[in-house]
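#struct-pred

JT: dropping the chains for the assembly here, can someone run the whole complex?
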Amino acid sequence: MKLIDITRRAGRSIRQAKARTLLTSLAIGVGAFTITLALAAGAGGRQYAQDIVSANTNTQELQVSQKQAIDTSKPQEYSTDPTVSYGGRFTVKQLSQHDIDRIAKLADVASVTPSYNLDVQYITRDGQKKYQASVQTFNASIQLNYLAGNGDSLDESHIIIPDSYRQALGFSSAKQAIGQTVHVVVAQGASQTNPPATKTFDFVIAGVTDKNALAISSGNSLYVSEAAAKTLYTYNQEGTRSFGNYMSAIVIAKNGVDATKVKGEIQALGYEAQTAQDLLSTVFQFINVLQGILLGFGVLAVLTSVFGIINTQYISVLERTQQIGLMKALGMRRRDVGRLFKLEAAWIGFLGGAIGAGLAIIAGTLANPWITQTLSLSKGTNLLIFQPLSVAIIIVGLMLVSVGAGILPARKAAKLDPIEALRTE
Amino acid sequence: MIDVKHVTKTYGKKQNAFKAIDDISFTVPDGASVAIIGKSGSGKSTLMHAMSGLDKPEQGEIIIDGQNILTLKQKQVDLFRAEKIGFIFQSFYVQANEAVSDNVSLPLEIAGVGYAERKRKIDEALESVELLDKKNSKAKNLSGGQKQRLAVARAIVNQPRIIFADEPTGNLDSVTGEKVEDLLFRYNKANGVTLIIVTHDPDLAAKCDIQIQIKDGKIASTTAPVAAERAA
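RK: done, full complex below.
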């Protein structure tokens, strides 16, 4: 018997027991639904993480810090290296200017920028209130969403402010704010007076940014050039014990040099270095674990449905004993009878997979805007991404699982004695 | 030609052993119509099953077209049935939920006949049993007589050499039964196909060329030439 004819007959048998087939398929459908969503969430999560990381980092960029003591359960040996102590044994070693210079000497390193810890008192402008502010060093690799102006030619006198500050500082529009002067007031850390001595630095607004959901730090940060950051830092920290010591530094690898290679070189010097890719893989690992848990539930559902298929197919064999007897009497081979029932199981698997995956795609597509809104992600972000290939693999996989479940009933059908089978009323 | 030589089939074991057919021998010439007559439990059905390769007697030979079907492998027996045998049963065994044409198509599909040829043969067979107009109806919508005619169409569609009919009119009234009988005998004569009818109906048996009466697993009387005698 030709495979196409067996497949058609199997399909017809399935149609003749619609309710039973549908119910059995739905059991697999639950598994297919869960697995499809798990894969979609995984794909979406990875895509989202990748978008975030690529929006905030540059592939040539590495974050460098001191190698930290891993075992904090034992007393740590005292060292004269700069550290920040968080009480008791837990200390974080910092990078000193000496460390920065050592790294800067590496041939493959284009630049080393220490991360200045800028402790700003407030920002204000003539005739306006004073507002707390967090000022960071501008980095061209950070993608900002400009409402007006930009950071392309940022110099020592420029500042980039978020739209929320633009409003608070009384500018009627982002455009109007460009070129205006604001005052940034910094306290002198080494000051012995109370309140400490302060100094006002004037900046010209070069850009106004909108909130970018993909950017980690764009929310309320103000950006100044590296030179300006150094000036603010120096005034703020000079004379204190921590001056010249940094938690971390941003290293930019030279163009055409693989960041991973630079990472190796920096590690050889005894520092910790992380590339953008490392950061991504940490996030990926987290997403993969979540996806694995969800997948586990799906696999469990499929496993349960396997028994449903076996049961359904056994009933089907019993119900159609006469038909099987007739087919065998007419010379249908054992193998073909077995195939008929395995293909019926495959149809059930196909239906279940298609229904489950289809519902998952519909539900996911409908839920995507809602998820984006609820988690206040930027517009156009889809946390559930359905890949045609993985959906196809799910359906084919479930068909194979169903065929596996159909093996026992199919064997029973193939073994039926035609005389006995035809005698059954 | 069908040569049945010393065929014995035993059911059960040791003390419970029971010979359903016991040392049966006869010959059926090609194109003959044969009635195997007997009461229920006489062994006539077992004999039919043995001759059609459904059952394997432990002793004897059944030689069809020079081949002992009892020594064939399962695969070859299946092929033999698919290509050379047509079956008609008392309870029709038509697939009620399938279309008439799909019922007739089954033996052709089993024999691996291609789609175009299948279509032609199905129409031909349905034409000869006057069911062509019902081609696309569901089999469950047919009357008893129509169902058995459908079974006849299914039996003849692949142009078998031998048709086995097990009480073909047992479930039919005399008028529809006669119509089915006519169909079978007409096909038997027109195509030279050997027709073997298992029945306990003496009227139907009388219409056959050869009658073989089975009683308690043995031939009680026969009009068939016995192979062993012919050889001698």
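JT: nice. The beta strands of chain B are 2-11, 18-28, 33-37, 59-64, 67-68, 85-88, 162-166, 194-199, 210-215, 218-222. Chain B touches chain A through 27 residues (CB under 8 Å).
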